[in-house]
Amino acid sequence: MPSFHPLNTRLITPEKVLFEGEVRSVVAPAVNGMLGVLGGHAPLMVALGSGVLKLTTGSERSYYAVSGGFLQVKDNSVIVLADKAVDAADVDLAEARNLQSRLEKALDAEADTVNRKRLKAELVEARAVVDAAEKYRDK
């Protein structure tokens, strides 16, 4: 019998289910900061920002870059409904870093306020992908 309460967890995007299973903990990027969830957590619903979602199952960790959506905790169950999510294991780190660099340069060169706002949002998502991929490779 485990010494922790497992969390039945699902990570879902509009396209597919990226993860479904029991985890020990969930760490997610809420809009107001990082949120950690363990078994027995009080019911909760939060909006997600862009960042790294970490799922821990025993000694294994899975990392996902997520952007937007919601996270619900209820009855030792966590449902992550992400607008966008990428499994860090599937990321080409060199390509992700290249995209981040291109977006940084485009943002520096852009004067239009509307385009700058769009580029900033894309850059935040690109940084989340790079961060998730780096954490996956360092685990």
Structure description:
With 139 residues, the protein is an alpha+beta fold. The protein has 2 domains: 7-88, F0F1 ATP synthase delta/epsilon subunit, N-terminal (ATP Synthase, domain 1); 92-138. It is 31% helix and 45% strand. The chain is built from 2 helices and 8 strands; from the N terminus they run ββββββββαα. It has helices at residues 93-109, 113-138, and strands at 7-12, 17-23, 25-30, 33-38, 44-47, 50-57, 60-74, 77-87. Strands 1, 2, 3, 4, 5, 6, 7 and 8 form an 8-stranded mixed sheet that branches. Strand 1 (7-12) and strand 2 form a beta hairpin. Helix 1 (93-109) runs antiparallel to helix 2. The longest helix is centred in the C-terminal third of the chain and has 26 residues, at 113-138. The relative contact order is 0.18.
Overall shape: it is: globular
**What structural category arises from helix and sheet content?**
alpha+beta
Rg for CA atoms: 16 Å
CATH superfamily of the largest domain, called what? F0F1 ATP synthase delta/epsilon subunit, N-terminal
- Count of spatially separate domains: 2
CATH architectural type of the largest domain: Sandwich
Average pLDDT level: 94
What's the short story on this structure?
The chain is α+β, with helices and mostly antiparallel strands and 139 residues long. The protein folds into two domains: 7-88, ATP Synthase, domain 1, CATH 2.60.15; 92-138.
Please render the helix and strand layout as text.
Elements: E1 7-12, E2 17-23, E3 25-30, E4 33-38, E5 44-47, E6 50-57, E7 60-74, E8 77-87, H1 93-109, H2 113-138
Parallel strand pairs: 1-8
Antiparallel strand pairs: 1-2, 3-4, 3-6, 5-7, 6-7, 7-8
Helix pairs in contact: 1-2
